Amino acid sequence: MEDGTSTTPRHTRRTNRPTVEQTATCEIRDLLDRLADKWSLLVVELLGDGTQRFTELKRRIDGISQRMLTLTLRQLERDGLVTRTVHPTVPPRVDYELTSLGGSLLEAIQPIVIWTRTNRPEIIKSRQRYDDSTRQGSTAR
Predict the structure, then answer these.
(1) Which of 83, 87, 37 lies closest to 64, judged by CA?
(2) Would you give the DSSP letter of residue 61?
(3) Does domain 21-135 have CATH number 1.10.10.10?
(4) Residue 92 has what pLDDT?
(5) In whole angstroms, what is the distance from residue 34 CA to residue 73 CA?
(6) Residue 103: count of CB within 10 angstroms of its CB
(7) Residue extents of the structural domains in the chain
(8) Sequence-ordered list of residues with C-beta below 8 angstroms from that of 25, at least 6 positions apart, any chain
(9) In the predicted model, is pLDDT for residue 94 greater than 80?
(10) Distance (Å, rounded) from C-alpha 61 to C-alpha 37?
């Protein structure tokens, strides 16, 4: 037997699920972090309406800075979710659209978007009740 070879029997059945350590150290974690950021899924959802110019996206996303939209679009392009087309005009016109990979992500998140729109009024009421109770010093929640 070679040095370093274990003589202890081990469970050798493998599963398809990665361990926590593998997930934390691989690119999956990086991608999930990006998709869970404040703007990426919103941009994907808006591009589901079709090709849009940078200025159209900026106008439709309340509160996003030009720099943050630029960074978000670059990352989505880098991940293969969005394509960027520069038209040779003065000033240059830049269009963004979902790739087929981005379209498949949109299909995956669409149920969450629908759930959010459907339940938004109830969530707003719940937040208001919570905020009111904490302002009054109530510990019952």
Answers:
(1) 37
(2) S
(3) yes
(4) 87
(5) 11
(6) 15
(7) 21-135
(8) none
(9) yes
(10) 14
User: In DSSP terms, which residues pair with 98 in a beta bridge?
Assistant: 82
Phi/psi at 15 (5° precision)? -110, 165
Burial 25-46 (b: 16+ CB within 10 A, else e): eeeeeeeeebbeeebbbbbbbb
pLDDT (tens digit, 9 = 90+) per residue, 8-66?
A: 555 555 556 666 666 556 778 888 888 889 999 999 999 999 999 999 999 999 999 99
**Strand stretches in 16-100, DSSP E:** 52-53, 82-87, 93-98
How far apart are alpha carbons 121 and 124 in whole angstroms? 5
73 touches 96 (CB < 8 A):
yes
Q: Is the Cβ–Cβ distance between 96 and 82 less than 8 Å?
A: yes
Q: How far apart are CA 35 and CA 89, in angstroms?
A: 32
Strand-pair partners of 83: 97
The pTM for the full model equals: 0.71
Residue 121 phi/psi, 5° resolution?
-60, -40
Closest CA relative to residue 45, chosen from 108, 123, 120, 124? 108
Joined together, the tokens standing for residue 42 give 């919103």
